[in-house]
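ok new one. same drill as before - structure tokens go in, u give me an amino acid for every spot. 195 of them this time. try not to just spam alanines like last time pls lmao
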């Protein structure tokens, strides 16, 4: 009859640091279907404890299209503590999915000299002042990641990370684009550091 069952947005977060798990919880609370993957067992245990879905299998096999692990994934966020891994995985994921899957990664700290991180593709998440190390440092000083309705969110002292559109589409802040939240949508924020 020409009716297509609209698939729910499914975001894959790769990484298992405490702030990444909190981001997964915030995205899930805003109505997204969240899937997580981490390489270290202690990180995987933290993901399970947060009751987030944990992807099984080998990431690189999935990234090169040799497994069905990425089936249904609508966006990938590379959030590990390894800048070069994030850069290489972004390239493999985009090649394995024909460049159609949105892939985003954390930016390396400015002035660092990784092997490949500064030179490889995919969109870099957040602003220049919110690199992987800056985000982890702020989280360590008490900043928390929260989701709020856009029309009730207090942005004072917070950084906008994502907008969850009314249709469930996840739109990140990148170094080149900043989405404008609308009434009825959800914003995901990194709040101010606690005293």
């Amino acid at each position: 009859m020409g009716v297509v069952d609209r698939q729910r947005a499914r975001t894959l977060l790769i990484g298992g640091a405490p702030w990444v798990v909190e981001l997964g919880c915030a995205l899930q609370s805003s109505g997204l279907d969240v899937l997580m993957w981490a390489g270290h067992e202690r990180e995987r245990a933290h993901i399970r404890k947060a009751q987030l879905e944990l992807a099984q299998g080998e990431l690189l096999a999935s990234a090169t299209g040799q497994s069905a692990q990425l089936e249904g994934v609508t966006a990938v966020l590379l959030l590990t503590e390894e800048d070069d891994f994030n850069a290489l995985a972004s390239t493999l994921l985009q090649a394995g999915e024909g460049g159609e899957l949105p892939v985003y990664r954390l930016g390396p700290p400015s002035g660092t000299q990784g092997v490949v991180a500064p030179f490889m593709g995919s969109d870099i998440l957040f602003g220049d002042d919110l690199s992987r190390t800056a985000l982890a440092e702020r989280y360590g000083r008490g900043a928390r990641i929260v989701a709020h309705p856009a029309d009730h969110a207090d942005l004072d002292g917070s950084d906008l990370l994502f907008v969850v559109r009314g249709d469930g589409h996840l739109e990140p802040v990148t170094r080149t684009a900043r989405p404008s939240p609308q009434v009825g949508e959800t914003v995901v924020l990194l709040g101010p550091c606690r005293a």
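The domain at 10-142 is CATH 3.40.50.720 (Rossmann fold). and btw The radius of gyration is 16 Å.
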